[in-house]
């Protein structure tokens, strides 16, 4: 009887230990989830945080604007190369281990980027950005794969909804946060933009080291080193070519030495890469992804969502123009958009579990298209803040529904568990290609409109008579100083009138000697040519002031024509995504 009692007590003790172990594992998963979300946040935030600081950094390091683009280009290129390799390594050696290594490399790169501010070295900044991107490329796909496979399939959508929310919010807020940090720290301390990552990285690494995870078995298959090398060269060539391609001046652009040699290299390498990957035991990029209908559609949707993501870059400038706000104020409306993105992503995840990923994608692309059309067709004409907010809310919801959650869900559902990170990396790579070409497609709508600014403004400027009794004529811009012309090009709707006054004064001053000479003998007695020119200039500047409303409206309408075309293009891109989404199978994983 005593033996039975001991046996019962032992069984109870074992049950208790099992329950406690289960609770501990459950708590560890929650902590790891937070850790991965922190990593995703700083990784995706960093992609946009540098955008508002590029000019400041270039001026600080005495770098030309043409060369300054490399601080973004080098990150984009190395990031793209890093993704598939990091994903494959994590499938072989363990996701948590590779994530920790990736976040460490990212933190080291961030530290070195920050220090380059105080060393005053642009080469150091570029090398540091490459190191940062090498780590950054592994953060998002590995974290997403780990989170997705840590939850049962019926709850996977909700879990990935958190990923989509964090990714969407940090992407949208990147430029705004960058501007805020730069404003608080001051332009001379731009290194703070990178150094803020370091304490978060330390916390994430500390959490990772403190929590033991289930041991993942190393793959016995041969590592695809040849495929990794070929993939790296292939990605570098196509990404560099696409970032330099001007889609609005395609014929001239494609003949540029920054484009066609790299396109040729890509075309030559592509069949070589395909042959290598077909023979590889464990390929870096599984070519079957592109022959499986559902996976191929998912990758196409990732490309479309990447193009659409960059549309948010232009929203602050658009809001400032239509509402007549000072430059820098439009970022607050992007923050509002981020709120809707943050609501939609986790909500979309829950709806995926209830309905299907296809349903959420159709809903998301519909919201995005509707929001973009509201901005393109209504806001540009009415300049209403309420309608603008409605359009941004729809676009924010659309981004939240489409950007991460359903695509991550689809890719993980359609591949085996031993290659989730590799598949996730391929998805992120395809999305990055969309992100890379998007600015080249969209920014040209604004550039084309800006080319018409000076001509349209000169047409409505007050006419001026250079000599007494001569017919009044329009200003042509001839004789104005380069600084005055640059002032018009860099003006916003709140400063354009002051810029035009400086432009007019500069032009009159430059032709003053000729005016004085033509006035000889035509002035009333006692009036000197110098005084006459001064009076003429003052009178003209008063006329410019009195034309303020007309000039601001002309400036607004000219730029709005470009923004309207841009958002119509964004709506068309969303509609393509909608059509592709409809082609997906409407299935819910039980």
Molecular structure report:
The protein is 78% helix and 0% strand. With 590 residues, the protein is mostly helical. Among the domains are: 168 residues, Growth Hormone, Chain: A; 52 residues; 85 residues. α4 runs antiparallel to α10 and α10 packs parallel to α19. The protein is elongated.
Topology at a glance:
Layout: H1 2-49, H2 54-60, H3 65-68, H4 70-93, H5 95-119, H6 122-150, H7 156-185, H8 192-195, H9 197-210, H10 225-244, H11 250-254, H12 260-279, H13 293-309, H14 315-323, H15 331-354, H16 357-382, H17 385-402, H18 405-413, H19 420-451, H20 453-460, H21 482-489, H22 496-519, H23 529-546, H24 548-582
Helix pairs in contact: 1-6, 1-7, 1-9, 4-5, 4-6, 4-10, 4-19, 5-6, 5-9, 6-7, 6-19, 7-15, 7-18, 10-12, 10-19, 13-19, 13-24, 14-15, 15-16, 15-17, 16-17, 16-18, 16-24, 18-19, 19-24, 20-24, 21-22, 22-23
State the gist of this model.
The protein is an all-alpha fold.
Instruction: Please name the fourth-level CATH homologous superfamily of the domain at 25-153 and 175-213.
Output: MFS general substrate transporter like domains
- Computed over alpha carbons, the radius of gyration is 29 Å
- Range of strand content: under 5%
Any guess at the CATH architecture of the domain at 25-153 and 175-213?
Up-down Bundle
Notable features of this structure?
about 600 residues; mainly alpha; Growth Hormone, Chain: A; 24 helices; about 80% helix; about 0% strand; elongated
């Amino acid at each position: 009887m005593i033996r039975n009692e001991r046996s019962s007590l032992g069984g109870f003790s074992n049950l208790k230990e099992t329950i406690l172990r289960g609770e501990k594992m459950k708590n560890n998963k929650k902590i790891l989830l937070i850790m991965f979300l922190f990593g995703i946040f700083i990784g995706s935030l960093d992609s946009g945080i540098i955008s508002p600081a590029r000019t400041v950094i270039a001026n600080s390091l005495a770098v030309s604007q043409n060369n300054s683009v490399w601080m973004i280009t080098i990150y984009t290129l190395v990031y793209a190369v890093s993704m598939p390799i990091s994903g494959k390594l994590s499938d072989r050696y363990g996701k948590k281990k590779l994530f920790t290594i990736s976040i460490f490399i990212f933190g080291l790169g961030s530290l070195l980027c920050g220090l380059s501010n105080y060393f005053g070295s642009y080469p150091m900044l570029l090398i540091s950005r490459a190191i940062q991107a090498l780590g950054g490329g592994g953060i998002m796909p590995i974290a997403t794969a780990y989170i997705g496979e840590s939850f049962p399939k019926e709850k996977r959508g909700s879990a990935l909804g958190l990923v989509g929310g964090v990714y969407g919010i940090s992407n949208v807020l990147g430029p705004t946060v960058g501007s805020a940090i730069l404003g608080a720290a001051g332009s001379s301390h731009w290194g703070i933009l990178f150094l803020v990552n370091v304490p978060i990285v330390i916390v994430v690494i500390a959490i990772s080291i403190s929590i033991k995870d289930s041991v993942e078995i190393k793959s016995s298959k041969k590592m695809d080193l040849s495929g990794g090398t070929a993939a790296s060269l292939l990605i570098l060539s196509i990404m560099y070519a696409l970032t330099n391609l001007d889609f609005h001046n395609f014929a001239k652009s494609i003949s540029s030495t920054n484009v066609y040699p790299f396109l040729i290299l890509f075309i030559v390498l592509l069949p070589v890469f395909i042959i290598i990957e077909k023979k590889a035991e464990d390929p870096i990029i599984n070519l079957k992804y592109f022959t499986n209908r559902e996976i191929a559609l998912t990758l196409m949707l990732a490309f479309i969502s990447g193009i659409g993501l960059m549309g948010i870059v232009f929203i602050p400038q658009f809001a400032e123009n239509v509402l007549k706000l000072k430059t820098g104020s439009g970022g607050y409306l992007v923050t509002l958009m981020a709120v809707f993105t943050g609501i939609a992503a986790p909500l979309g995840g829950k709806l995926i579990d209830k309905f299907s990923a296809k349903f959420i994608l159709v809903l998301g692309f519909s919201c995005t298209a509707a929001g973009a059309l509201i901005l393109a067709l209504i806001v540009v004409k009415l300049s209403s803040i309420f309608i603008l907010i409605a359009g941004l809310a729809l676009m924010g919801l659309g981004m939240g529904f489409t950007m991460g959650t359903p695509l991550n869900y689809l890719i993980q559902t359609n591949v085996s568990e031993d290659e989730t990170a590799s598949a996730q990396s391929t998805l992120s790579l395809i999305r990055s290609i969309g992100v890379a070409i998007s600015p080249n497609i969209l920014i040209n709508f604004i550039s084309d409109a800006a080319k018409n600014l000076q001509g349209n403004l000169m047409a409505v400027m007050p006419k001026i008579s250079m000599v007494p009794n001569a017919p009044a004529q329009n200003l042509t811009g001839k004789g104005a100083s380069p600084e005055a012309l640059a002032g018009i090009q860099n003006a916003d709707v709140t400063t354009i009138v002051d810029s035009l006054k400086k432009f007019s004064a500069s032009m009159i001053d430059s032709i003053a000697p000729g005016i004085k000479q033509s006035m000889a003998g035509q002035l009333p007695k006692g009036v000197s040519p110098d005084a006459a020119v001064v009076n003429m200039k003052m009178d003209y500047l008063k006329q410019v002031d009195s034309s303020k409303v007309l000039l601001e409206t002309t400036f607004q309408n000219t730029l709005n024509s470009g923004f309207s075309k841009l958002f119509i293009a964004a709506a068309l891109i969303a509609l393509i995504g909608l059509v592709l989404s409809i082609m997906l199978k409407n299935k819910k994983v039980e």
